Amino acid sequence: MGRAFTEKKLVIASHNQGKVREIRDLVGPLGIEVVSAGELDLPEPEETGTTYIENAELKARAAAEGSGLPCLADDSGLSVTALDGDPGIYSARWAGPGKDFSLAMRKVEDALREKAAAGNPDRSAAFVCALTICWPDGHTESVEGRVHGDLVWPPRGENGFGYDPMFVPEGHDRTFGEVDSDWKHSVSHRAIAFEKLLELVGLDRRSAKAG
């Protein structure tokens, strides 16, 4: 068990509206007031970490220092087996300065076609999510979740964000871009990490709902 989270307000240390929306949906049932770093006009720190957890921790620390409130940060990405884990922690950067994920998905597909032409047809991948809570005193608690699946082309579906339209989770036949948010929240890398974090910091959905 990590440090217990007892506060009633939490900053989501992200300017990505897709992430903010998903995390807000996950946190909502706990009765905690949520505000995003974007809403507080907090600057986005440079992501200099070499792992998902390192980046989540530096983002959470920066937001906690800037707001004086406990902060929850996410660092996530798509790790493609045939590409030796790329784009990985650089998943957002593959979308360029305009955050064009249709471009990012095309880059992944082009790289996979090159691998297939060279004799490696593997299209397996995993979505990875690290979550960190940082308190204003600098204490952090971090977890990581991942969901495995395969990549399809062309992308399918208008839901979700990022690489969701080309990712089919293991054991299913629809992409994250084709399913509704409630279903995605039950199986996604972010949902898996969030459940781990709830247990780590002593939060319980059932008691929150009952209260």
UniProtKB/TrEMBL annotation:
A cellular component annotation (GO) from this entry: cytosol
Chemical reaction(s) catalysed: XTP + H2O = XMP + diphosphate + H(+); dITP + H2O = dIMP + diphosphate + H(+); ITP + H2O = IMP + diphosphate + H(+)
Statement: the UniProt record of this protein carries the keyword Cell division: no
Keyword Protein transport among record annotations: no
Transmembrane segments: none
Binding-site positions, substrate: 14-19, 76, 161-164, 184, 189-190
Recorded superkingdom: Bacteria
Keywords assigned by UniProt, alphabetized: Hydrolase, Magnesium, Metal-binding, Nucleotide metabolism, Nucleotide-binding
Amino acids binding Mg(2+): 46, 75
Cofactor(s) essential for the protein: Mg(2+)
GO terms of biological process kind: nucleotide metabolic process; purine nucleoside triphosphate catabolic process
Active site: 75
EC number: 3.6.1.66
Catalytic EC class: hydrolase
Molecular function terms, GO-annotated: dITP diphosphatase activity; ITP diphosphatase activity; metal ion binding; nucleotide binding; ribonucleoside triphosphate phosphatase activity; XTP diphosphatase activity
Details of cofactor binding: Binds 1 Mg(2+) ion per subunit.
Complex and partners: Homodimer.
Family from the record: Belongs to the HAM1 NTPase family.
PANTHER family in UniProt: INOSINE TRIPHOSPHATE PYROPHOSPHATASE (PTHR11067:SF9), INOSINE TRIPHOSPHATE PYROPHOSPHATASE/HAM1 PROTEIN (PTHR11067)
Role: Pyrophosphatase that catalyzes the hydrolysis of nucleoside triphosphates to their monophosphate derivatives, with a high preference for the non-canonical purine nucleotides XTP (xanthosine triphosphate), dITP (deoxyinosine triphosphate) and ITP. Seems to function as a house-cleaning enzyme that removes non-canonical purine nucleotides from the nucleotide pool, thus preventing their incorporation into DNA/RNA and avoiding chromosomal lesions.
Protein's name according to its UniProt entry: dITP/XTP pyrophosphatase
